[in-house]
């Protein structure tokens, strides 16, 4: 189910546009403007907190801060061990980051309802800090919404990330949504990302969960996994503009499941990525459903391919794929086949059940021919699709 933005978030986003045209600042927030905060120890944290004792039961609280145009990071926190909640703050036009966390003790920092506007690196940066939670925040017109590096078990939940004017040059994309680097077990859940050039990027990051996010009008890449494995991408929605919706490069043993992808150029693109599972996804009105280059042993099953202008599945240099129980309707319309295979030893049916795929253009006699030099065939085309997709 698609997540709806709260009334507060919608009002605040509307105010951003007023700020852009120079009339919104007086009504933006009622907080008193404060100076930047730089914390390098627990003693600094105690000095700058508004309440609390720094324990797990009674954490320090920094709240209701309005920090703009400081020429410094709005709030920078390093080398602390005390527990802290940062909430109900607004940061704009500061140096590099709105909020910067580095080497804070595991599980000690939570942020909620933070608004970051127009920072040159990121709204929020989390470095070498484990088990940080970022929830219910708005990150607007930053070069990146959230950057996570060398930080494990980070949770990003129910945030809104966007820019006013998307970067349309796909050769030099900017304005990233969420960037995760060298981190494990990161959970990215129920976020909305709009108009960014690249939405969610994982590099050298394993065992992550990306679920129930809504991506709209992302211009270049919606989900990118580079050298990242054992991740689950589940129940996400991608609509409009993306050149790549799901792009995997040198990434293995991932699961792409139950996602909806419409009106993009390449719904799923795999490159040198092995032993992945792509299942129970709906891919329609795209250029190509699933395209692969030089990968091996991927399983593509129980997906719906409908009205894609190119092939439903397009394999080049791909080996030992298992492709079964998918439904193909009106893909590559007007051509002889809805899929293409230029690889080797790819199997277009379930070898145990002896069941293949449903093809709406199958003439119900013999096998279904797959285009391409591999001369592949679906030996067991299915007569019905409703029972498995």
Task: Tell me what you see in this structure.
It is a single chain. This protein is about 5% helix and about 40% strand. It starts with 6 loop residues before the first helix and ends in an 11-residue tail after the last strand. The chain has a single domain, classed as Pectate Lyase C-like. The chain is built from three helices and 38 strands. The chain is mainly beta and about 400 residues long.
List the helices and strands and how they pair.
Layout: H1 7-20, H2 25-28, E1 37-39, H3 42-48, E2 60-63, E3 66-68, E4 75-78, E5 84-92, E6 97-102, E7 109-117, E8 122-127, E9 133-135, E10 138-140, E11 144-149, E12 155-157, E13 160-162, E14 176-181, E15 187-189, E16 192-194, E17 198-203, E18 209-211, E19 214-216, E20 221-226, E21 232-234, E22 237-239, E23 244-249, E24 255-257, E25 260-262, E26 266-271, E27 277-279, E28 282-284, E29 288-293, E30 299-301, E31 304-306, E32 313-319, E33 322-324, E34 327-329, E35 339-344, E36 358-359, E37 368-369, E38 377-378
Parallel strand pairs: 1-4, 2-5, 3-5, 4-6, 5-7, 6-8, 7-9, 7-10, 8-11, 9-12, 10-13, 11-14, 12-15, 13-16, 14-17, 15-18, 16-19, 17-20, 18-21, 19-22, 20-23, 21-24, 22-25, 23-26, 24-27, 25-28, 26-29, 27-30, 28-31, 29-32, 30-33, 31-34, 32-35, 34-36
Antiparallel strand pairs: 37-38
Main sheet attributes: strand count, strand direction, barrel closure: 23 strands, parallel
Mean of all residue-level pLDDT scores: 92
Number of E-type strands: 38
Please give the CATH architecture: 3 Solenoid
CATH superfamily: Single-stranded right-handed beta-helix, Pectin lyase-like
Tell me the span between the first and last alpha carbons.
18 Å
Q: Helix fraction?
A: under 10%
């Amino acid at each position: 189910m698609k997540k709806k933005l709260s009334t507060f978030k919608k009002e605040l986003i509307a105010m951003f546009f007023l700020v852009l045209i120079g009339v919104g600042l007086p009504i933006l927030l009622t907080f008193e403007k404060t100076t930047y905060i730089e914390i390098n120890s627990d003693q600094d944290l105690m000095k700058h907190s508004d309440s609390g004792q720094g324990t797990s039961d009674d954490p320090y609280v920094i709240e209701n801060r309005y920090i703009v145009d400081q020429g410094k990071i709005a709030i920078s926190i390093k080398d602390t061990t005390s527990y802290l909640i940062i909430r109900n703050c607004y940061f704009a036009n500061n140096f590099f980051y709105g909020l910067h966390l580095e080497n804070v003790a595991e599980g000690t920092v939570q942020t909620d309802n933070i608004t970051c506007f127009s920072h040159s690196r990121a709204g929020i940066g989390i470095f070498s800090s484990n088990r940080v939670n970022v929830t219910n925040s708005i990150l607007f017109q930053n070069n990146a919404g959230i950057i996570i590096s060398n930080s494990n078990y980070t949770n990003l939940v129910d945030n809104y990330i966007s820019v006013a004017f998307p970067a349309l040059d796909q050769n030099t994309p900017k304005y990233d949504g969420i960037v995760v680097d060298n981190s494990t077990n990161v959970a990215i859940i129920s976020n909305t990302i709009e108009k960014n050039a690249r939405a969610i990027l994982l590099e050298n990051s394993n065992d992550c969960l990306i679920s129930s996010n809504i991506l709209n009008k992302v211009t270049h890449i919606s989900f990118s996994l580079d050298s990242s494995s054992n991740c689950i991408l589940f129940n996400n929605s991608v609509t409009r503009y993306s050149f790549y919706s799901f792009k995997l490069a040198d990434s293995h043993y991932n699961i792409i499941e139950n996602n909806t992808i419409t009106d993009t150029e390449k719904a799923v693109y795999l490159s040198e990525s092995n032993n992945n599972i792509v299942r129970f996804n709906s891919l329609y009105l795209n250029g190509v459903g699933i395209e692969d280059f030089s990968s091996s042993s991927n399983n593509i099953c129980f997906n719906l391919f409908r009205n894609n202008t190119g092939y439903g599945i397009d394999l080049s240099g791909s080996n030992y794929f298992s492709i079964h129980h998918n439904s193909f309707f009106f893909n590559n319309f007007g051509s002889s086949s809805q899929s293409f295979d230029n690889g080797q030893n790819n199997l277009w049916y379930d070898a145990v059940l002896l069941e293949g795929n449903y093809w709406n253009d199958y003439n119900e006699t013999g096998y279904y021919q797959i285009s391409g030099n591999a001369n592949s065939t679906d030996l067991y085309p299915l007569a019905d699709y409703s029972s498995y997709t």
